[in-house]
From TrEMBL:
This protein's record includes keyword Isomerase: no
TM annotation in the entry: 42-61, 81-101, 136-153, 165-188, 194-212, 233-257, 263-283, 295-316, 328-347, 359-378, 390-411
Keyword Kinase appears in the UniProt entry: no
Assigned keywords, A-Z: Membrane, Transmembrane, Transmembrane helix
Protein name from the UniProt record: NnrS family protein
Species of origin: Poseidonibacter ostreae
Length: 421
């Protein structure tokens, strides 16, 4: 009876989609706010890690700094910016989202959360000391992180209705790619490590598209509710599925036939399919493309689309030098912005606050876009290559420094609405 009363009270006073964990929160004493929900410690660590690592890489690629203890710097740089950051982002997304998507699942908090966060820290230390501690240790710790994430996401994979199973299946593919990568670096597989990482980019883009479909449904409808807009946003699965199919085809063909001119046309088709996702924001009755978070979210597929379009254009012109620069519209742009915007949305909604647009949020998004353009368009300004490497890295890092200023007080204190988590 008490649980029924609590549930009725919750339904009346709180938006249920962001508080489904409330009735199942573990009865653990003295949980500090920074361990009260999965996203909190991850964002506290990920923001400064983004700042430090990106500025460090900018100094390396601009020729100011070298990393003498790391061989094959380019390959390991790409690996870390893909997998090292991915595991933290996915951990925050899953430990926050799955208890909301599957009511009855006990949220992952307290001591258990601390252990897995420490594992991520050890994984990052093993990466930066890889030429000292060895590839085997880095492989065990980093692959172990993804294995744990899959175990945590098993509720979604085993769900009889398969409502969110695609997230779990995507993680299985990404895990297989990471095992393949380490096998290559250890000499057990003959495939070039950089080729494997291009496959990883495609898999991560697919994961981002799947995650954004769910984030859009929560964030845009939450925003319209706050604004009193009497309409509903629906992320249409056929559009997302078409974009995922095109990304998968591009990734496979690029791996097998990287210089085939047909890949150029596939790149253009992939760009069009991803750009089509923005049509979901055109509602029947209300115009919402002037809303801050709608613009932020729409910029993600736009940047991804620009990346695939420019790579396709480059391939059709038989110029294979610029393609990897243009790929930064996908990595630094689309994927990087998706991390930042999701961190902002979760930081507001899951700390018991309303989504807020201000000079800080606008500046964060603008600087990511500016840094991406600066980094990706280096082929058109070759005389300033080193300067653009450095300045784009600094500009890309600043939004995460701003994030620390704006959101750290939210992450270090209990929810504003008094709910646990």
């Amino acid at each position: 009876m008490a649980n029924e009363l609590n549930e009725n009270k919750l339904n009346k006073e709180q938006p249920l989609h962001a508080t489904n964990h409330y009735l199942y929160y573990p009865d653990e004493k003295n949980i500090p706010p920074y361990l009260a929900y999965g996203f909190r410690p991850v964002f506290l660590l990920l923001a400064p890690y983004m700042v430090i690592s990106m500025i460090l890489w900018g100094l390396v690629w601009s020729g100011v700094l070298s990393i003498p203890f790391m061989n094959d710097t380019l390959t390991w740089h790409i690996y870390e910016m893909l997998f090292g950051i991915l595991t933290a982002g996915v951990m925050a997304f899953l430990t926050t989202g799955i208890p909301e998507l599957f009511p009855g699942m006990v949220p992952f908090v307290g001591r258990r959360l601390k252990i897995i966060v420490v594992l991520w820290i050890l994984s990052r230390i093993s990466f930066w000391t890889i030429d000292i501690t060895g590839i085997y240790l880095a492989a065990i710790l980093n692959i172990g992180m993804l294995v744990w994430l899959l175990w945590f996401a098993k509720e979604a994979v085993l769900d009889p209705l398969q409502r969110h199973a695609s997230l779990g299946y995507s993680l299985i593919v990404i895990l297989a790619i990471e095992v393949w990568f380490f096998s290559s670096m250890l000499g057990f597989a003959s495939t070039n490590g950089l080729s494997i990482l291009t496959v990883a980019i495609g898999a991560i883009v697919i994961l981002v598209l799947l995650a954004l479909r769910r984030v859009n449904m929560e964030a845009v409808n939450e925003l319209m509710e706050d604004k009193g807009i009497d309409d509903i946003y629906i992320s249409r699965p056929p559009l997302t599925n078409l974009a995922i199919f095109c990304v998968a085809i591009f990734t496979i063909v690029e791996f097998l036939y990287p210089q085939n001119s047909a890949l150029g046309w596939i790149g253009l088709a992939t760009a069009a399919s991803i750009l089509a996702l923005t049509s979901d924001y055109i509602l029947k009755d209300k115009f919402i493309l002037n809303q801050g978070y709608v613009i932020y979210l729409a910029l993600i597929p736009i940047l991804l689309s620009i990346g695939y379009a420019l790579m396709g254009w480059d391939l059709l012109n038989d110029d294979f030098y610029a393609i990897n620069h243009f790929r930064h519209f996908i990595t630094s742009g689309g994927i990087g912005l998706s991390y930042l915007v999701i961190m902002m949305i979760i930081g507001y909604i899951h700390s018991g606050r309303h989504l807020t647009v201000n000079i800080y949020t606008n500046m964060m998004v603008f600087l990511i876009v500016l840094a991406t353009c600066m980094r990706s368009l280096i082929p058109f300004f070759e005389n300033y290559t080193h300067e653009m490497y450095l300045y784009s890295s600094i500009l890309w890092a600043i939004p995460f420094a701003i994030y620390m200023k704006v959101f750290y007080s939210f992450l270090l204190n209990p929810r504003a609405d008094g709910i646990k988590g």
